[in-house]
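TICKET: design request
STATUS: open
ATTACHED STRUCTURE:
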């Protein structure tokens, strides 16, 4: 998990811990395994019901890449790679280019270079890479919406716990233990639902969205670079064109 996410999570927890004095004095009051299980696994169960097997598999892969640092090609690096490959293409045969691209371990890049080496026409390469890019973006959007829906499910299960807790209280208003247990369920499930939604699920969906946009931009840069190589554009032209896709910060440091 990247350091920014860790810092954000610590800041959010600190805001709750120091902003609510009673939590510091008696944290145990706010800890209840039954309420947490009700909200957490209830929201997970609802998401599973709304998903297919393949979506769950892809979601697990996407989340693992988010929490476990994985070396990926960022847009700025993609520009450098494509400019280098364009220079290489002028100094060697097309059949030798795949050996140069394999070192970057990027299937999208390798696929595009392989099509150039095979002598396929520019329109076919463009269509094929566009299809790959659009399918990747569509798949990511579906999975990101799954995570975002977890925030809604957690909130709804928190409300459901509140209703169940109130029903439990009204069932026997003379039993003080029953009242305490019911109110605990009613209030803590709402708390856990809001906590999971606002501090975990929704921020995570935004993080995944940002990562997806970076990946799509990287693929777009690679695609345009590959088409430039296929057209035998000079490296300087490819360099200026691909840099136009970068934000101002990356342009200044490119």
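STATUS: resolved
RESOLUTION: sequence designed for all positions
ATTACHED SEQUENCE:
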């Amino acid at each position: 998990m990247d350091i920014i996410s860790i810092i954000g999570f610590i800041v959010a927890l600190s805001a709750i811990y120091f902003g609510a004095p009673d939590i510091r004095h008696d944290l145990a009051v706010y800890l209840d395994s039954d309420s947490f299980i009700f909200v957490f696994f209830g929201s997970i169960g609802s998401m599973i019901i709304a998903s297919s097997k393949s979506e769950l598999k892809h979601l697990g892969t996407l989340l693992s890449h988010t929490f476990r640092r994985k070396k990926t090609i960022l847009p700025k690096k993609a520009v450098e790679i494509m400019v280098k490959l364009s220079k290489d293409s002028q100094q060697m045969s097309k059949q030798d280019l795949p050996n140069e691209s394999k070192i970057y371990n990027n299937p999208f890049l390798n696929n595009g270079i392989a099509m150039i080496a095979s002598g396929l026409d520019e329109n076919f390469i463009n269509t094929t890479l566009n299809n790959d890019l659009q399918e990747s973006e569509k798949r990511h959007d579906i999975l990101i919406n799954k995570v975002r829906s977890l925030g809604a499910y957690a909130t709804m299960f928190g409300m459901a716990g509140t209703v169940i807790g109130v029903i439990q209280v009204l069932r026997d208003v003379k039993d003080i233990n029953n009242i305490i247990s019911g109110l605990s369920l009613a209030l803590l499930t709402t708390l856990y639902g809001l906590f999971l939604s606002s501090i975990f699920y929704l921020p995570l969906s935004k993080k995944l969205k940002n990562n997806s946009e970076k990946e799509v931009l990287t693929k777009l840069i690679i695609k345009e670079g590959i088409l430039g190589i296929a057209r035998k554009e000079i490296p300087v032209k490819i360099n200026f064109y691909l840099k136009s896709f970068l934000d101002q910060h990356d342009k200044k440091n490119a």
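CLOSING REMARK: The mean pLDDT is 87. The longest helix spans residues 176-230.
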